[in-house]
Structures are given as C-alpha cells and as structure tokens.
Design a protein that fits this description.
The structure is a single chain. By secondary structure, the protein is an alpha+beta fold. Helices cover 29% and strands 19% of the residues. The protein has a four-stranded antiparallel β-sheet. Strand 2 and strand 3 form a beta hairpin.
Length: 150
C-alpha cells in the first residue's frame, strides 16, 4: 500500500478472492482478482459488472464504487451506522472498511494483511441494529474492526 492509497482483501468464506484499492487523492477505485481465485474451477465474479477478466484498462472506478455502495445499508440504517462509526455516509471506503465482515452478500472485505488461514478470527456476522456495534468496537480500537480510516 502506498501513501494515499488503501487496500482491503476480498474473501469468499476462507478463500481469498482479490484486492480492492482506493486512491484517496483522486478518489479512484480498482479491483484485482487473485490468480489463485481465477484458477479455481468454481470461481465467479463479484458482480456481472465486475467480470473475472476485465478489459485491459481494468474495471471502471465508478462500477467498483457502485458495487460497494450497494453492499451498504440504506436509509436510516446507513445514517445510524455512519454516525456510530464517526464517518460520513458518503465515505464509501471507510464504511466498507468498518463493516467489511458485515456487508450484505457473500464477500467480506478485510484488512489486506489477513493470512492464508482466512478470516476465521473475525467475529461472526451481525445483523440489523447489531452492525453498529462493529463501528463502536472500531472506535474503541478492538481487533474485530480495527484500522478504520476516519
């Protein structure tokens, strides 16, 4: 990770899928599937708009952002989670980082340094109002949701 650029690992169960990158300077998103995931016979794309084999220039930043926004809660739940995390509800990267193990869908977005043993040490998925607890834990500096950029 370079200055101004953040990364999260993408996991499907205990399998690493790829990496999500966000450049804070120009607010550009990128996604890269791992070769091991691409070699899996059962591999599938995160979304039809984010195919396993993107065009040469990569996935469009706006497409990656839109995919991530759709994983976040909506309406009052989004307001509550953002407030609990101390983040703007427009801070998509910060919210995905805070809720990475709790987003909707099958994928988890975890610190890039999670090992090949997978995210087994992560807390179980929460639901509904409990999701805010993850952000409260983050602000307290616990391991469950460490490293949120505010």
């Amino acid at each position: 990770m370079t200055e101004g650029r953040s990364a999260l690992g993408i996991w499907y169960g205990s399998m690493p899928v790829g990496s999500l990158y966000f450049d804070h300077r120009d607010e550009r998103w990128s996604l890269q599937y791992l070769p091991a995931w691409l070699a899996e016979p059962s591999a599938f794309a995160l979304s039809p708009q984010l195919p396993l084999h993107p065009p040469a220039e990569g996935h469009r930043s706006s497409t990656v952002r839109r995919f991530l926004q759709n994983l976040l809660p909506e309406g009052q739940q989004l307001d509550d989670v953002a407030k609990s995390c101390g983040l703007s509800k427009n801070n998509v990267y910060g919210l995905v980082q805070a809720l990475g193990a709790e987003t909707t869908g099958a994928f988890r977005f975890l610190p890039i340094d999670v090992t090949e043993d997978g995210p087994q040490d992560q807390p179980p998925r929460l639901g509904g109002a409990e999701t805010g607890l993850c952000c409260k834990a983050t602000r307290a500096g616990t391991r469950a949701c460490r490293g949120v950029q505010q």
